[in-house]
Structure formats: structure tokens, C-alpha cells
Amino acid sequence: MNSKLIALSLGGLIGIGTFVSTITQSLTAPNPPQTIPKIYADQILNNMASALSDNPNKFKITQTDVTIWADCRPDKSGKIVEPCTKFAQKGWRVKVRGKGENWVYFVTDKGFVTLDAPASISYKAKLAVAKKLNIQPQNLGIQAAQLTFPPEVCLVAKPCPVQHKLSWRILLNSDPSKIFHVDLQGNNPYISNSLFANNSGIIPQEIGEAVMRDVVNREQRPISNLNVESLKATTWNWCRGKGPGPTAPDMGACPDVDQSGWQMIVPSASARFIYYIQKTLSGDYMFAADGVQSLPQLAATKVKKDAAKRAKVSINDINVRFVEPRFFDGCLNTDNQKLYCRQSVIGGWQVTALGGQSSDNSPPFSTIPTIAAWVYNVTTSGDDLRFVQASTWMPKP
């Protein structure tokens, strides 16, 4: 089998904020004036027109409100570096209409402009995603969103055209394991890491492409060439140590059952992703990246060092036990009150490390000691991590 796959360029992600660098004199009034300065208004109109590839004269500001919101303070160049300190930002909330879209912007009294992506998604786009989930659009619960060009991934033997169609990349509060892509008009919605029907006896082409697309989504960067390091059929049994296979879940009694599927390994810039693919009883295929096997050593070491410090034990007493592939907002889901955090969706891992004595008491009459569990949200490469919470873990009987 030709295992080389090509991931075509995303065309670049749309920036979430721009700084009006031509402003040399900031507003000095305690509160912004009711009327937004023309240079700020023009910057907003140009931003939306550029994103939609049209003339700024075709766009119109329909509403401007003076407001205060929680956000990150940009540096002098307009760049925001996470983690940042939350503070009360003053400025305007601006609604803009054009080319069938109604977008919402925030602009500070210093001229920093941010597109509020979750507030700018059209009803048609929300409805398309809601239909996929069989819920009402008002119940979506959008955690974060951003404008992007969705990935096109094709086999070398069957090239497909690059379709640079601007779309929303959406993360919902209800399920951080996947993201949704839908174009601005609500057409062609798809879910990353969903099921694909096929009744053939070997791994179908669309499953290989779906796995590659999942890697691209997690990397969140243009990838011109991805190679499949390995693709092979495998059978595993967690009770007998037979494999290779996915990491055993947290379970008590072990089911002595052989399971079959495929292991697909895709190295990328940030991690070496190890996927397991299985065929369901209904004939569909499901796949997932194995977090424990895919987590970069850098990330595991950082988690263990931080957990050891919190637990006041040696790093050798800390064990990375559970790793789940996740998607987060721009602040790794640790402070969604900031406007900045809600304007991007990034891939990563939720990592649980075990070690040290739990501060909670063991259940009455229990002979099994409780163990401290330390939970972290980590970027795909492991270059950034945030401590989420401490809890207690006990082995299942």
C-alpha cells in the first residue's frame, strides 16, 4: 500500500486581532467618547472587507456601543502573549454588516481591534452545526471559534483541488474532543474525528484522509506534506498484554477479549500521533489518537515536574496515567472570561498524573489508599501547560 499522503495547505489562519500602528496619540478621556474615531472605524471596515475579499465601501457599521470587557492587555506592537493577566478593557463594541454577514468587533480606546468570532457566526451556520447534533441552535454553547480555511487532505494517487473557502472552526462546551467546520453560509458542515461508513475489508481511503485531516486540525498550521510512518492491522487483548493496541482504559475487571483494528502512525511538527482505527458492528469506522502513546516526552516531563512539586514528592513517584486528545480555546480553557481566549481553537491534551498522598480522606472502611491526581491542559507539542485541578484517584475494583 502506498502510505504517503499529502495534506494541502490551509491557506493560513485568519488573524484574530490587529493593531492600529498609525495611532501615535491614545485617547486620554477616562471613558471613550460615544462616537468611535474614524481611523478605528475604517480599520474595522477594512478588516472585514479583507477577510471577505471585497471593497470596504460595501460594508457598513450598524451599531456602536461604549463598553467595558475582560481581556488581555496587548504589548506595544499589539501582540498578546499567553498566559496574560485579565483586566478591564475600555472601548467600543461594533456591529458591521456586509456581503450577507453581520460581524461583531471590539476595539479598545488604544486602537486594538478584535473580531468576536463566536458572536459573528451566522444563524445559518449555527443551525447547520445544531442539526448535526439534533439540538436547537440556542443550545450549542460555543466555547471558542475562529475564521480559517479548512484542510483539504488527499491521497497522492487521487489528487483533489484546493478549495480556499472561508469557514468557521468551532469548539463547543459540550465536547472538547472534536471541533466543527462549517462555511459562512452554513454549507458542508463536518465534524473532526467522526464516523465514516464503508463496508470494504481494508482501511478505506476516506478513513486515511480523515485521520490526516485530524492531524492538520490539531496542528493548526499549514502542512504541505505528511507521511504515514506506519499503517498495519493489529489485534490486542488488554488482559493478556497482546498488541500493539490502544492504551487500556481505567477499568476494574479486565475483559479477556481479542479486539482487532489498525494502527496508523503520523509524525508531525509537534507530536508523533498514534491512531487506532476500528470497524463497528454497524460497518462504520471509528478512530482516535491514543493520548498516552502520542503525548510528546517534553509534555510528559513538564507535567511530572510540576505535579511532583505540588505533591512534594520525587518526580520518580509521579506517573502520567491518562491522556485525552482535546481541543481548547486560546487560553487552554483556563480563563474563558477573556475576550481574547474565545477567538481561537487549538489542539492539545488533557493529562492526568498520579502520585503523592491525596488530601482527601479515604472512604470509610476502605483498605485501598487514595492517590492524588493532578490534571493539566497541555498544547499538542507540550510547550505550554496549565494546571487545572487536583483530585483523588482510586483503582476500580
Question: How is the secondary structure organized here?
Answer:
Blueprint: E1 4-7, E2 17-19, H1 38-51, E3 60-72, E4 86-98, E5 101-108, E6 112-115, H2 117-120, H3 123-133, E7 142-148, E8 153-155, E9 167-172, E10 180-183, E11 190-191, E12 196-197, H4 205-219, E13 226-227, E14 230-236, E15 259-267, E16 272-279, E17 284-289, H5 291-294, H6 297-311, E18 319-329, E19 345-357, E20 371-379, E21 385-393
Antiparallel strand pairs: 1-8, 1-13, 2-6, 3-4, 4-5, 5-6, 7-9, 9-10, 10-11, 12-17, 14-15, 15-16, 16-17, 18-19, 19-20, 20-21
In the predicted model, the low-confidence regions spanning at least 5 consecutive residues are 1-29, 155-162, 193-201
Rg computed from alpha carbons, rounded to a whole number of angstroms: 24 Å
Please tally the helical runs, counting DSSP H or I stretches of 4 or more residues: 6
**Main pleated-sheet profile:** 5 strands, antiparallel
Distance between the termini: 44 Å
pLDDT average, as an integer?
81
Counted beta strands: 21
Strand order of the biggest β-sheet: 2-6-5-4-3
Strand proportion? 35-45%
Secondary-structure-derived class: alpha+beta
N-to-C order of helices and strands: EEHEEEEHHEEEEEEHEEEEEHHEEEE
Indicate the percent of residues in helices.
10-25%
Shape: globular
